[in-house]
Model the fold of this input.
Amino acid sequence: MDFTSSLLRLRVSFKWRPRITKNVTDTIRKWVEIHQSNRPHWILLNMEVHHMVKYKGADYNQYLKSMIELGKVLDHFSNFSKVIWLNQYPTIDPAHQEIFSEKIHRYNKDIRNILNNQSNVRIWDSSNSLAEEYVRSCAVNFQRDEVHGEYFAKYVTCKDFIHFGNAALSQATQILFNDICNSKIEITSDDRENL
Done:
């Protein structure tokens, strides 16, 4: 999915890639080589959960190896554009044997160690608390076995305990955009006095 706004001078491209593959690394490597007018201004990445599931070829050591290679490419790319790695949110699904919070925290910690060597790659985890409370509320509401009405059905989608619904996604997106945009706004001492 691609969107371009000449008014905002913004190009957005959404590419869903559930796993770190040679294709993902090569795509970012190509962005480094192309003319800056065709290069994204910033990219958001997260690829963890699909690497944890056995039937999708889970191999933790291969994941770390791929992440190290991707980290090098992201470091190079971050010389031209902003790179933000979105931590995987924790889950509280008691029935899932392959994806659980302790494992997610281990992946996040290892990714942080890998990407911290790339000084220009930001790791963003500001909405972790929001996600944790969201999935916790899903568990509580499922335990109550209540009918939740139209609002709940549209905005609090609790199909699983990994993907949170539109209400939390909207808030997390707003927090992310505020974080990105606020870093661009410089407030002088005169501005602070007028607040």
About this structure: Strands lie at 2-5, 10-13, 42-45, 82-86, 121-124. The mean pLDDT is 76. Helices lie at 22-33, 49-52, 60-77, 101-116, 128-144, 149-155, 166-182, 189-194. Residues 127-195 form one domain.
